[in-house]
């Protein structure tokens, strides 16, 4: 069962129509169980991404807290936390504008879409963990 109303202009969908009068393209008429059985566009990696991000964050936290000496009165932890949060968002949500970026396309080409998401989860976790290690430095 597909869409019965156009989400843009809210007009009813004519029977068998592929486009609305406002030029909105209706989704394909497929049973929902067929979409769920296929698993969608990308495999569910949320658990793996969370584990990779936490491990990378813990390693970076340890290194930043015990090895590196952060400069005093620096914006470095704030910048690292912002970059880490943005990268973690890109890994978990995987929006087209993030994975289609010129630099991200190279990673996607090298390791595939799922591998790129794991890579960006590790990178984001490392940035966020390093920021936390710098903030909590003795």
Brief sketch in words of this structure:
With 138 residues, this protein is mainly alpha-helical. The chain has 2 domains: 40 residues, no CATH class; 90 residues, no CATH class. The protein is built from 5 helices and no strands.
Describe the structure in your own words:
The protein has helices at 32-38, 46-66, 76-93, 96-99, 102-135. It has 138 residues and is mainly α. The chain folds into two domains: 1-40, no CATH class; 46-135, no CATH class. α2 packs across α5 (102-135) and α3 (76-93) packs across α5 (102-135). The longest helix has 34 residues, at 102-135. It is elongated and about 70 Å long.
Note the main attributes of this structure.
mainly alpha; single chain; 61% helix; elongated; 138 residues
Q: Regions with pLDDT < 50 over 5+ consecutive residues?
A: 29-41
Largest sheet: none
How does the overall form come out from the CA principal axes? elongated
Helix segment count? 5
What does the average pLDDT come to? Answer: 79
Strand content: under 5%
Q: Taking Cα atoms only, what radius of gyration do you get, to the nearest Å?
A: 21 Å
Total number of domains:
2
Q: Give the N-to-C terminal Cα separation.
A: 60 Å
Helix proportion range = 55-70%
Number of strand elements: 0
Q: Helix/strand/pairing class, anyone?
A: mainly alpha
**N-to-C SSE string, H for helix and E for strand:** HHHHH
């Amino acid at each position: 069962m597909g869409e019965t109303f156009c989400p843009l202009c809210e007009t009813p969908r004519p029977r068998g129509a592929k486009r609305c009068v406002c030029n909105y393209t209706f989704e394909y008429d497929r049973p929902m169980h067929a979409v769920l059985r296929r698993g969608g566009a990308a495999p569910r990696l949320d658990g793996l991404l969370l584990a990779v991000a936490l491990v990378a964050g813990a390693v970076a936290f340890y290194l930043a807290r015990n090895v590196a000496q952060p400069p005093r009165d620096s914006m470095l932890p704030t910048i690292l936390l912002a970059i880490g949060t943005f990268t973690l968002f890109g890994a978990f949500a995987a929006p087209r504008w993030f994975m289609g970026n010129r630099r991200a396309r190279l990673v996607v080409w090298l390791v595939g879409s799922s591998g790129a998401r794991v890579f960006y989860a590790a990178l984001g976790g490392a940035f966020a963990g390093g920021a936390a290690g710098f903030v909590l430095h003795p």
